[in-house]
């Protein structure tokens, strides 16, 4: 198997991953996953697709993430890993799709409009 390259997106985050057979090492922006995502929850989110299909220590993954916040980056990486697992073995698709790892979550922050305080918040009305 050669190196598999996929992309995942969430909010304004973009994650590009390179997956190859190995010992299960995950690096994010040339750092270990533990240093890049210090909270356990974000590490669990990134590893969810691997745990679901039972291939935790089968692949070495190099992740490049850009944009957005830490949660969006973790979820973008999760989507990219799920797509790569489907590319490797098509039988994983059903389980990953059922969990929602292959679905692009397109919710983004609404832009601020002119003449308003925020995206929808209007200025306080004063009768007198």
From TrEMBL:
<dbReference type="InterPro" id="IPR023035">
    <property type="entry name" value="Ribosomal_uS9_bac/plastid"/>
</dbReference>
<comment type="similarity">
    <text>Belongs to the universal ribosomal protein uS9 family.</text>
</comment>
<feature type="compositionally biased region" description="Basic residues">
    <location>
        <begin position="113"/>
        <end position="128"/>
    </location>
</feature>
<protein>
    <recommendedName>
        <fullName>Small ribosomal subunit protein uS9</fullName>
    </recommendedName>
</protein>
<keyword id="KW-0687">Ribonucleoprotein</keyword>
<keyword id="KW-0689">Ribosomal protein</keyword>
<dbReference type="InterPro" id="IPR020574">
    <property type="entry name" value="Ribosomal_uS9_CS"/>
</dbReference>
<dbReference type="InterPro" id="IPR020568">
    <property type="entry name" value="Ribosomal_Su5_D2-typ_SF"/>
</dbReference>
<dbReference type="Pfam" id="PF00380">
    <property type="entry name" value="Ribosomal_S9"/>
</dbReference>
<dbReference type="InterPro" id="IPR014721">
    <property type="entry name" value="Ribsml_uS5_D2-typ_fold_subgr"/>
</dbReference>
<feature type="region of interest" description="Disordered">
    <location>
        <begin position="106"/>
        <end position="128"/>
    </location>
</feature>
<dbReference type="GO" id="GO:0005840">
    <property type="term" value="C:ribosome"/>
</dbReference>
<dbReference type="InterPro" id="IPR000754">
    <property type="entry name" value="Ribosomal_uS9"/>
</dbReference>
